[in-house]
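Q&A log
Question type: sequence-to-structure
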Amino acid sequence: MASFTTNTTPVEKPDLNKVSAWFFALLEEVARFSPTYREIMRYNALSDAELAARGMTRADVAQRVFGARMGL
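Response status: OK
Response body:
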């Protein structure tokens, strides 16, 4: 004879804020290995005056880094 029980333990829902924070932190760690990410960080570290000496503004960084690949 078969028997069934309804005594189950409740399933706890994950905290989506923690899950998404973990996920994006993981993506950032993976991106750190990218030469493109390092190039952007190198430009980010420059002051506005240093960028101007190179004939650039902060708005030009994406053009310089991604231009050929994104048709910018």
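Response note: The helical segments are 16-31, 35-45, 48-53, 60-70.
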